[in-house]
Design a protein that fits this description.
The protein is mainly beta. The protein contains no helices and nine strands.
């Protein structure tokens, strides 16, 4: 059974490649939820792009949309990357301070 020591969850991730003018854009959105009964600091998000073989090919950090979440609060986040690598197959997102991985396959 996984144990969530941080009390924060990454949920409902959607990742897709869009075309904007002459560029491809990786658009990611989802929810951040505080599952504790007290206010929590929300760390930055570490986003990684992986190839079909699971090899990480690109990584970046994104600030959470809110620095704190109240008890049981949920907020939405969005992240974008212009010109993602062609071999991108999967996106993983985790909080920068822990290894709470939430994979999302690209559509």
């Amino acid at each position: 059974l996984p144990v969530n020591l941080l009390g924060l969850e990454i949920r409902s991730i959607k990742a897709q490649i869009l075309t904007e003018g002459a560029y491809s854009v990786l658009a990611i959105e989802g929810q951040l939820a505080n599952v504790k009964k007290q206010s929590q600091i929300v760390p930055a998000l570490q986003i990684a792009i992986k190839a079909p073989d699971g090899q990480q090919i690109y990584q970046w950090m994104a600030e959470a949309p809110k620095s704190h979440l109240n008890a049981n609060e949920v907020t939405y986040f969005r992240a974008r990357l212009t010109a993602p690598p062609d071999q991108a197959d999967k996106v993983t997102i985790e909080f920068s301070e822990i290894g709470n991985n939430s994979p999302a396959k690209l559509k």
